[in-house]
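Input.
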Amino acid sequence: MLNIHLRVKGPAEDIQGLKEAVAMALEPLGEVRVVSVTVEVPEQIQFEL
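Output.
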């Protein structure tokens, strides 16, 4: 078994389509299953008054 971790810089709204596109692209190499998907939210600067 081979585990591949990808980091994609793109909008979080496209996560479902991106997950499926990656799985379909790798499918000719063998059985593909998406194990987990996480979204990193960029930290925003906060000012205290």
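The chain has a mean pLDDT of 85.
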